[in-house]
Design a protein that fits this description.
Chain lengths: 323, 502
Amino acid sequence: MIKRSVFLPLIALFSALAVLAAGPAQAWEPKKPVDFVIMAGKGGGADKMARLMQSVIEKHGFSSKPFVPINKPGGSGAEALIHMKGKQGDNHTVMVTLNSFYTTPLRQPKLDVDISTFTPVGRMAEDTFLLWVNVDSGITNVDEFVAAARAAGSDWLMAGTGKGQEDQLLTTFLNKAYDLKIKYVPFKGGGRVAKELAGNHCNSTVNNPSEQLGFYQAGKTRAIASFTPTRLPLFPDAPTFKELGKDYVYFMQRSVVGAPGMSDEAAAYYRDVFARVYATDEWQAYMTKKSLMGGFLTGPKLKAYWAREKAVHEVILKDIGEI
Amino acid sequence: METFDLLMQGFGIALEPLNLALVIFGCALGLFIGAMPGLGSVNGVAILLPMTFLVPPTGAIIFLAAIYYGAMYGGAISSIMLGIPGASTAVATTFDGRPLALAGKADQALITAAGASFIGGTISVVLFTLFAPPLAEVALAFGAAEEFSLMMLAFATFIGLGGDDIPKTLFSIFIGLVLSAVGLDIISGEPRLIFGGLPGFFHGINFLVLAIGIYGIGEMLWTIESSHDGVKVSQASFSIGRIATHLKGLKHSLKASFMGSFLGYFVGILPAAGATPGSIMAYGMAKTMSKDPDSFGKGNIEGVAAPESANNAASTGSMLPMLTLGIPGSPTTAILLGGMVIWGLEPGPMLFVEHQSFVWGLIASLYVANLFAMLINLAFIPAFIGVLRMPFTILAPIIFVLCLVGGYAPTQNMHDVWLILIFGIVGYLMRKLDYPLAPAVLAIVLGPLAETSMRQALLMSDGNLMIFIERPISGPIMGGAVVLFLLPLLKLLRKPRVPVSD
């Protein structure tokens, strides 16, 4: 009997100690390398950005385990979305995403992907869009652009990055707003699109600044208008469409999402990692240099942002007859 | 002479002790990465990208470029030794490299590959040094129509590769084209041939999956059947005397190497093309221009020299659009480009102006890398030959594991591993039924490039086929392709067929 009475308090003591040791002070940490899924192909804008994030994490030691990039570009991101959906409850998978995060599930309902179930980690930036022409065309403003495009009719070519994606949405906007018949030709990747314009193989593009910057600096291409709320500091001579009387603003999200059903502790860990990435000099310098906008968003705010953007895209896609 | 001064400054940078060490280390690493089936330069460079944080930016990019370079040399090794192309750039090397190895001339094939790679590398880097800016303009002038014409030229150059049985060759090409159509259609955005929506098919069927399946697993099954127990993969022998003979023998393949170098370089500088079409076209050209075309595919040393010089030349070439236009000419340069962006070295037209010392340091390091990659390669040839001496019972399981790991590593997807096994069995059956396999593999490489560019060009021209003929660059290339297509027919008409004796 005596033995037993000593035994029980001992158990209680040890369990109390164990609870203390594992207690709330101990934050969650990844137990193996983190799969860093990229919803786009190698060498594109999203890929470059993901690899920059990976290097920043590595350089500053933000994570005890490495982030391993894996490209899943298939089906405008469908491959990546299905992969993430299958990782339900996984604490070691995060994904770099863009606007196909909204458009692909809308265009392909069969995928049965509900993006509201994904775990919000962080919106790292919003990429901007501009309307570009080749300097050889002599076009310097939107009026001249509209006159030339109208005269050319459906011979006016717009190179873009894929069917039903950002570039085509913007082309449709231009066609509607200015009563044009611009023809859209898809290419693989924004860098390739930029080159098509510099080589005079198409008449205009709606590239992100990061894609067209090199040719712009070399004096080969010119930005004549921007799809932003205010003029971009890098391109002070390009008016916004709002200034031109067409209230149209369009951004590309550069966000990180976690697998659906990720544990709260893990989600908090990744939020912290990417908030720290956002604050680094490297990331801030990249944002300035590439004319990226937008602050760090996470948690319910990011979810609300997704819901809003998804609704906007649903309207646009219906407008252009994609869904 | 300004170029010369800049290049000398570049050598000053490339020969700094740290950078020199990085070049040598990178070449050696690249050699082994390239030699592993499935693990090509793309994966090597991607995996090692973060490691470059330990050194200054210029050293980091020099290191990655050296890996790329070394991998181009290494790709030939598994093509020749195991018959499995280590990377898509080395496919054409298997056509003659493998028969040479089976005939006990693996050392000759390896030495020729190293020598040809060196020639290709040297010629291309000299061209790069002298003509970078004007060539960048050429790359810019290449649109969708020009690209399609070039792909037609590539198809035309290998029209004779399939052997005599034309229906079987056509069947093999069509199988390759159908497989290349699987996945997302870039123009319409719709998934095609995905077997009711299997997610693994969305990214299409990677060339490597087919090549490893057919050449790795299929070839192994074939060897198991055709050789009974105790048979080695080949009778490989090795001695210093033989090396000297083969080095002297290099001069027989000089013509093929030179032609491969120029062709590879020019194809390499075109965005989207890269080293694979370059090496295939060089092989086809070497065969077309050879005095003895029938010996190709059966162990002609020129069939090793041409694609090996071309893929090295093209790898240098594909750096040109990356550095001057910011557009990667190959998947590996796409990763390199990412690496440069991380370091604030923004590729594009301004790079040569803003980061002169980096650009010339990198160019100079290519000269150095080329030399060391060849020396390291030659030094390891005895070890590679040793692999062939292993009994097949030991070698076969190793090849099997390498194939599966190599297929899994790039996408980390079990789907691809199953496909490799299926392709392996199909490849074995096709071989048993005497179907040529090379046309299928080439079609899966060139098919998507040709299809996309053709549809883009036709979209631009409202379906008018004249776009391929009217444009000043596209027209002559298409003309050349048509001539090459018709050449075998003309030969047939002129020369009555020799009756085949049964």
